[in-house]
Amino acid sequence: MSKRIVVSSLVGAVVLGGVAAGGLAMASAATKLTVENGSARYVAPSAGAAGSLTFTVDVSDDSGVRDLKVVAWPASSKLDPTAAELQDAERAECQSTSDESSRCTYTLKVTQQDAADLAAGAWHVSALATAADGDTLFVPRAAAFDVAG
Predict the structure, then answer these.
(1) Helices then strands, each counted (H, E), the chain
(2) Rounded (5°) CA angle 83-35-118
(3) Torsion angle (degrees, nearest 10) of CA 131, 144, 125, 107
(4) Over 80: is that where the pLDDT of 91 sits?
(5) Residue 100 DSSP code
(6) First and final C-alpha spacing in the chain
(7) What is the DSSP-derived secondary structure letter of residue 125?
(8) CA gyration radius for the chain?
(9) CA 18 to mean position of chain CA atoms
(10) Sign (positive/negative) of CA torsion 22, 23, 24, 25?
């Protein structure tokens, strides 16, 4: 066998091995937990009809989404919640959109009395996402909305 054929075969084997290893690395690359496209909408109650606060966000992780906890707070309060404080917050309803992603929606009914007690002005929504594998991601300001005074 000539040296040229042996060298060509070795180079081909190395190239194929590199391509296969790169493909395996790409296939096994973990997708980080993400919280994206958050939006919040406040609708004040009207005569005879309750209002609402609705927060919607897309959550993704390669292991799937376990849950999303949410808290809304007035900017004027300077509360600035932490991830630890959101452990006991209310949960959003999450519907799977794929094996890795969910659209999560938190809806809160707002009565006339509730609305009278709300601080007027800017509000923030903080969120704590938990993946199926236990990873967490805290988003201190996942969305914002205004309450008219």
Answers:
(1) 3, 8
(2) 60
(3) -90
(4) yes
(5) S
(6) 88
(7) E
(8) 24
(9) 35
(10) positive
HSE-up (13 A, CA, CB side) for residue 85: 11
CB 80 within 8 A of CB 91: no
The closest alpha carbon to 148, from 74, 63, 97, 56, belongs to: 74
Structural tokens at position 54: 């609705």
Residues 6+ apart with CB under 8 A from 39: 55, 56, 57, 143
pLDDT, one tens digit per residue, over 103-142 is 999 999 999 999 999 999 999 999 999 999 999 999 999 9
Summarize pLDDT for 31-54 with one digit per residue, the tens.
899 999 999 999 999 988 999 999
Q: How far apart are CA 29 and CA 23, in angstroms?
A: 10
Cβ atoms of 64 and 99 within 8 Å: the answer is yes
Distance CA 78, CA 141 (A): 13
Alpha carbon distances (Å) from 1 to 30, 41, 106: 45, 75, 71
The owner of tokens 């707070």 is 73
Q: Rounded CA gap, 101 and 83, in Å? A: 21
88 CB contacts (<8 Å, ≥6 apart)? none
